[in-house]
Sequence to fold (263 residues):
Amino acid sequence: MARPVIALLTDFGTRDHYAGTLKAVVLGLCPDANLVDISHDIPPHDVLTAALELAACYKYFPQGTIFVVVVDPGVGSARRGIAVETSDYRFVAPDNGVLTAVLKEVPAKRIVELTERRYARPTVSKTFEGRDRFAPAAGWIAKGVDLSALGRPAGDIQQLAIPVPLITNDALAGEVLRIDRFGNLVTNINRKLFDKFSQSANIEISAAAHRVPRVVATYAEAGAGEVCALFGSTDHLEIAINAGSASEHLGLSRGAPVIIRKI
Fold:
C-alpha cells in the first residue's frame, strides 16, 4: 500500500518550532505518512494568499492526498475547525475561507466539523490548534478514520470574497491578487478570459498608472529591466520585469488595478 501523503501549508515560518511540531504530531499518529511542505512562508494571517497558493498547487498532488492548511488569525476563537472531502482529496483547515478557491474548482462531497475530542490532543491550546486539533485530525484520516468520525456535518462554511475581473465592450478590468517571491504581479485575469476579450484585437495594458508595453511568452523574451506581461504557470496574467521585481520597480502591491483596453 502506498504511503499516505500529507501536504502542509502554513504561515508558521521556519525560525520557530511550529512547523516541525506540526509534523511531529502527524508522524506520532501515522509514522508512514509522507509529509510534503507546500510552504510555511505565507505572510502571517494572510488567508487570501493561502487560499490562492493552495488552489495553485493541489491538483498536482496524488489522488488521496490530505492537505493541512493552517493560516488562522481566529485561532482560539469560536471559529470552527473543519475537514472536507472532495472526489480526490481531503482538507483539514480552520473555517475561515481558506478553502474557497479550491472548492470552487472541486466541490465538496462532505464537510464535517472537528468536534470529536478523541481525534484531537488531550489538551487543545487556544494559540496552537494546528498542533492540537488539525494535525491530529490529518493523522487519523491518514490512518483510515472516516471523516464522519471526526464530528458532525458542518453545513455551510465561510467563503472569501475573491475579486473577479469585470469585462465590458472595451475594457477588461482586473487586479493584482498575489505577488510571488520574484516580485511578479499575478492578476485575477486568466488566459481564457483574456483571449475571449481580445479576440486578436490590438490592446493596451496598464497596471495602475503604468503602461505595460507588450505581452511576451517568456521572461527572457523581454529585454533586461523591461516591464512586460505574460501568462505564468497558473495561466493567469502577470506583470513582470526581466531579472527584477515588478512589484518594487512599479511600487505596486495586492489590489493594484490592471486594465486591458482595446485600441
Observations:
- The helical segments are 18-29, 47-57, 100-105, 129-142, 191-198, 246-250.
- The chain has a mean pLDDT of 96.
- The CA atoms of residues 91 and 99 lie 8 Å apart.
- The first strand starts at residue 5 and ends at 10.
